[in-house]
């Protein structure tokens, strides 16, 4: 598409991730509002056109009378595999048709709506939650430290701690947050708004103030898993419903960089931990004074040693190669590593690079997300075997 498409006075712009297009120029105010969203960038040219450039964010944002849609650079079906929904989005009587969809946010919200409706059809999940409160009745355990600190010399009321059997558990809180966000920022149809409002009534007693709680995958919440994965995607996304520079802005976006990071960690964790040790994302300090903290995307620890460190890279290697070298060299120096790995979300076939000064070997690997799911699995299997073989 080389021009803006008008649809009932709404101009539509469609891009794929990292694509750029030369389109009719927009006003300075609209361009500034688009740039403020951080969704895509707009740069003027000397002529009557502007350069619209997407990065790793997908979704739909409306700015004034322009609606901007950015789609993944790989088949939409693969997005659900990256999220860990291997068998698709299934329901009691049908499935969401994801193969031909060109509206990614509608697909996400519709999938979430149907999954939550299905998983809560028999009521909300319940469980025990630790509660600390000031009580007029003695129950549970007395918190002597809190009692002495807050009511020294008095034993009434009582500071207590107890386990409450409730619906106010992390799983329901996560779903409720996503429902609220979908209703506020989703480009929903009238029917979807109605269904979300009906669904939200089930969660009317859920306390949003407990949003710092985190759910843990277990057999108790197995029927919630798909819903929770989609809720996590929605809650980590960015919603817009505001005015920027006098221009109305609304919409919802998801950063695929974070999705790819979580995908790589999950898939490598399953394969590598069969050999022992722990594979995880780790936050560690790079300096002796513990002032400079860094996120290590994938770290494999075994027998008290760091076996390998890898960093996920969603962008084209050519776009950030120099900064990536600085980053991995810093990691290798801080943790005395002989080698370090960069894993890209596209095919790459590069020879390993040895940094000067007896530095580490830097290996670049690629996962081609445009392949079929079975082919992607095979590439990850081969990558895991490579890491295991290098350590044996």
Structure description:
With 392 residues, the protein is of the alpha+beta class. The chain folds into four domains: 5-73 and 241-255, no CATH class; 76-124 and 178-201 and 217-236, no CATH class; 127-166, no CATH class; 276-391. It is 34% helix and 30% strand. The chain is built from ten helices and 18 strands. A six-stranded mixed beta sheet has the order 1-2-7-6-12-11. A hairpin with a 2-residue loop joins strand 6 (57-63) and strand 7. The radius of gyration is 25 Å and the shape is globular.
What integer value in Å does the Rg equal?
Answer: 25 Å
How far is the first residue's CA from the last residue's CA? 52 Å
Number of strands: 18
Order of helices and strands: EEEHEEEEHHEEHEHHHEEHEEEHEEEH
Strand content: 25-35%
Provide the low-confidence segments as ranges.
1-7, 88-100
**Structural class by SSE content:** alpha+beta
Total individual domains: 4
Order of strands, main sheet, comes to 1-2-7-6-12-11
Topology:
Layout: E1 5-7, E2 10-16, E3 20-24, H1 28-37, E4 40-44, E5 49-54, E6 57-63, E7 66-71, H2 76-82, H3 104-119, E8 127-135, E9 141-142, H4 144-150, E10 158-166, H5 170-185, H6 190-202, H7 225-236, E11 238-244, E12 247-255, H8 256-272, E13 278-285, E14 293-302, E15 305-313, H9 317-334, E16 339-344, E17 353-354, E18 361-366, H10 373-391
Parallel strand pairs: 2-7, 15-16, 16-18
Antiparallel strand pairs: 1-2, 3-5, 4-5, 6-7, 6-12, 8-10, 9-10, 11-12, 13-14, 14-15, 17-18
Helix pairs in contact: 3-6, 3-7, 5-6, 5-7, 8-10
């Amino acid at each position: 598409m080389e021009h803006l498409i008008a649809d009932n006075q709404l101009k539509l712009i469609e891009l794929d991730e990292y694509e750029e297009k030369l389109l009719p120029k927009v006003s300075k105010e609209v361009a500034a509002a688009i740039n403020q969203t951080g969704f895509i960038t707009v740069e003027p040219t000397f002529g009557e056109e502007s350069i619209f450039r997407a990065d790793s964010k997908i979704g739909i944002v409306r700015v004034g009378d322009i609606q901007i849609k950015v789609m993944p650079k790989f088949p939409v079906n693969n997005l659900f595999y990256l999220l860990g929904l291997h068998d698709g989005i299934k329901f009691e009587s049908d499935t969401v048709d994801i193969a031909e969809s060109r509206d990614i946010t509608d697909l996400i919200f519709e999938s979430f709506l149907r999954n939550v409706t299905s998983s809560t059809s028999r009521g909300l999940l319940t469980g025990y939650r630790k509660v600390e409160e000031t009580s007029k009745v003695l129950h549970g355990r007395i918190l002597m430290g809190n009692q002495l600190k807050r009511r020294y010399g008095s034993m009434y009321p009582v500071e207590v701690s107890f386990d409450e059997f409730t619906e106010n558990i992390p799983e329901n809180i996560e779903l409720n947050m996503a429902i609220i966000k979908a209703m506020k920022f989703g480009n929903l149809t009238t029917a979807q708004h109605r269904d979300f409002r009906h669904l939200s009534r089930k969660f009317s007693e859920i306390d949003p103030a407990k949003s710092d709680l985190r759910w843990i995958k277990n057999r108790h919440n197995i029927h919630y898993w798909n819903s929770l994965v989609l809720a996590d995607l929605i809650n980590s996304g960015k919603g817009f419903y505001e005015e920027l520079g006098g221009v109305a802005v609304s919409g919802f976006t998801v950063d695929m960089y974070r999705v790819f990071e979580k995908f790589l960690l999950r898939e490598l964790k399953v394969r590598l931990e069969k050999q022992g040790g722990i594979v995880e994302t780790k936050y560690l300090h790079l300096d002796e004074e513990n002032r400079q903290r860094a996120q290590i995307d994938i770290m494999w620890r075994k027998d008290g040693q760091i076996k390998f460190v890898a960093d996920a890279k969603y962008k084209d290697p050519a776009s950030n190669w120099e900064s990536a070298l600085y980053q991995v060299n810093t990691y290798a120096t801080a943790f005395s590593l002989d080698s370090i790995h960069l894993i890209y979300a596209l095919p790459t076939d590069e020879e390993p690079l040895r940094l000067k000064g007896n530095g580490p070997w830097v290996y670049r690997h690629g996962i081609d997300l445009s392949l079929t799911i079975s082919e992607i699995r095979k590439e990850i299997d081969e990558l895991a075997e490579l890491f295991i073989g290098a350590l044996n």
